[in-house]
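Comment thread on ticket #2218

A.B. wrote:
> Attaching the input chain for the structure job we discussed in standup.
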Amino acid sequence: MSSLCSVQLVWKRWKVISTFVITAIIWLATVLPVQAQGADEELVRIWPTNNTTLLVGQRFDLRVESLIPAQSPPKLESITINGNNFTGTFRKRIDEQLQLPGGSIEVGLPEEGSNLFGQTLRNWSLPKPGRYEIVATLNIDGRQVSARNTYRVQPFQQRGNLNKIIFFVGDGMGTPLRTGARIMKFGVRDGQPGGYLEMEQMPFTGLVATHSLDSIIPDSANTAAAWVSGAKTINNALNAFPDNTPENPLDNPRIETLPQYMKRRYNWGIGLATTAFLTDATPAAFGANQRLRFSYEQIAQQYFDFFRDGWALPETGYRSLKELSQPVDVLLGPGARHFVPNEERAAEFRDTVFRRDNQDLVAVAQQQGYTIVTDVNSMNQAPNDRKILGLFLGDFREGAALGAQNIPSVLDLLIARGRATIDGRGASQLNPPIPPEFATIPKLEEMTRKAIAVLEAVSPQGWILQVESSQSDKLAHPLDPDRTLYEVLTLDKSVEVARQFVAENPNTLIIVTADHAQGQTVGGTVDSRAIREGRIDLNDAMQSFGDAGFTTYQDTDGDGYPNEANPDTKLAIGISARPTFRTDFLTDDLNLPPSGEDGTEPNPERDPNGLLLTNDLERGTTVANHTGDDVPIAVQGPGARLFTGVMDNIEVFQRMAAAISGVRNRQDLATGRPFTATETES
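C.D. wrote:
> Ran it. Output below, let me know if you need it in another format.
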């Protein structure tokens, strides 16, 4: 997962921003009404977000707060639920929370003297299906000011035969990337696709809207949170909402995710397999509840339900978060920097970054019974009947845009294994050479196979697994379209693994979608040989209409990937929402950032003689950005027909829960009609 800030270049810029500026940005997100319904709602608000659909018994934090400092401290006048007085119960629960160690944090009290009101009733739930209207009234300087939110509570009961969900995420994978990957793999014959991707062969498809609570352009945190919590939140938030205490990003109101809900109620297993660092936004959304996606060390602790004073995520003040957390059984990905305590341990992963609290989370995982693996061989040899933590190498080459916290492109892993080339050159012939250690890093499809095997052994009663191809976004940000398409292919190879599993385990639901799109489109083709030999002006390189012809990618070893990244005729991907950059349309040996500190200036070290393409983004943006396009969703298994049509991303949550509850037809979604044995599974 990933957003603009997940790219190494942008993260370097974030690190130099002062704490004051960050706090100011958070404060703006706090005081500006995200979803106001009227004048009063600009002064008082309630969390969770208005019009959220919850599950019966799903935990959430009910917070009431004022937004603008008053002349004197505001006071709670009343809270009603469907017209019934809830004020006494709310106050009693708040008083109980205040008696806990760190009680003011548990309640989310604003700083003394701020003249703001804020109180959070933690881990509350609604026990019956139906529609609920909550009205909160504050006395602000003698005036009664109210906010009103409406919630729908969806019925839930585990029924039918569905007890496994494999949720595939092609980060940033809009429809053009799927099309480009299909052309790369199968070509076009007789004017028709030469074949279809595994995800394209799944029987039910739809479109998903991806907007966030504060923008039409989302990031990867709020979108992934929408799938698993059913609630809209703002960019950079993970199953949590902004509040009026921005000085503490850990005390925000939270909401339980579907994986947490299923583990708490039915002891389902939880698994994460990703090419992003393990605490990045997309995987974190399935296992963490944090206002800031950048709380990486706290997210890592939440994966193990481990809270301790003196660590980044303390115990004092966060008992309610500990009660909400559920340990993740399978963790496979890079990003050891958020688990290891010091420079020496970080160096084992060719990294220089380590936990700022100098605590050893790997040792905690070992104490909790996890098998620790660090490469493809140790992963494959690890027992399936124990929880597993895999921490793999990242792209530690100097200057690489992905950085030491993210797994290298699958193209580079294939080259390291002798299965692909760039212009006919292997690993040792590239500049810089691809390190031999890259051959020890597992591909996503290998992680997928292992994750399924472990979850089947440790949680036969049921489980949910997220599999993310992150680099389809992280390589799109620095404008590397060829490697980006290879990342779609590695996701599709992982889908193939899952579909093979489902053939023997039909009680499994497979979902393939994207968190958001980027600005790529299949523009045409280029003559790679003519470009290499300098026989064509780059202004004439991209060919379209009848001049485009057909690509010449080949997969001679049958592993599902083209053997050569620069065949004689290759795809040319057009890109919008971009900074200024240069391109020669060929695959670079090393993925470098496209721009410098200013998005109007190309990186002089990248394709210095390439065609200059100017920015259409604001100059402060130095990488390509997300877009607000709808993204495709493909589904197979029990309840799959629920996912057809156009839907919002929070509806993915609602429909997953309905599928587990035995609902099989879209017309039954609103009523939650129980599943009966006479209905046909599909």
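A.B. wrote:
> Thanks. Noting for the ticket: Residues 1-38, 672-682 have pLDDT under 50 and may be disordered.
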